[in-house]
Write a structure and sequence with these properties.
Length: about 190
């Protein structure tokens, strides 16, 4: 069965329409929704994963956990699912509000999306992380300096957006309002 996504307006309002994710090409004013999870350990280091080498895009690059929000799912439900699927960690008991949101518009490719970024502070050990083999080939707990170095080498995804999210959070900027849940299916 093909994965479906909800379609949102520029301000994050669900349109009530869904599309098959694979090959989705969105026109101006329509967006899909993604989530990213910054997972920080008690000692202040960040959980990063290395993308599988057979990924079509950015194979072998480092990133934080995240993925697409499925049709009928809220951003919060998606981040809990993605973290559990990709790392085996459970963030369901954490505050489930994004700390930052951004919008990407790529009309040439129809790749328009909204991303909710969450920041979780968890007590866990590296051995508690169980990677989803088809998603990642490795993980580490990294300092900001180590992540900066990976970004300088051009092998860390979403780096600027994650820095912006952490800076906004550190500055005490208000968190984005959670997006309205998609309409219930008939």
């Amino acid at each position: 069965m093909e994965e479906r996504i909800d379609i949102y307006t520029e301000d994050g309002t669900p349109t009530g329409r869904t599309l098959v994710r694979k090959g989705a090409c969105l026109p101006e004013g329509e967006y899909m929704l993604y989530v990213l999870a910054i997972i920080q350990s008690e000692d202040g280091r960040f959980l990063i994963t290395r993308r599988a080498l057979d990924k079509r895009w950015a194979a072998g690059w480092w990133e934080v956990t995240g993925g697409g929000v499925s049709a009928g799912e809220t951003s919060a439900q998606a981040v809990v699912r993605e973290v559990r699927e990709e790392t085996g960690l459970d963030v369901s008991g954490q505050p489930l509000a994004p700390v930052w949101r951004y919008r990407n518009v790529d009309l040439d490719r129809g790749d328009n999306y909204i991303v909710d970024i969450y920041h979780f502070h968890l007590r866990f050990r590296p051995e508690d992380v169980h990677l989803q083999a088809r998603e990642a080939i490795g993980c580490q707990l990294a300092t900001r300096e180590q992540i900066d170095a990976l970004a300088a080498d051009g092998v860390f995804l979403h780096y600027d957006r994650l820095r912006q999210a952490l800076a906004a959070e550190d500055a005490g900027e208000p968190a984005p309002t959670p997006l309205a849940p998609p309409p219930a299916s008939a």
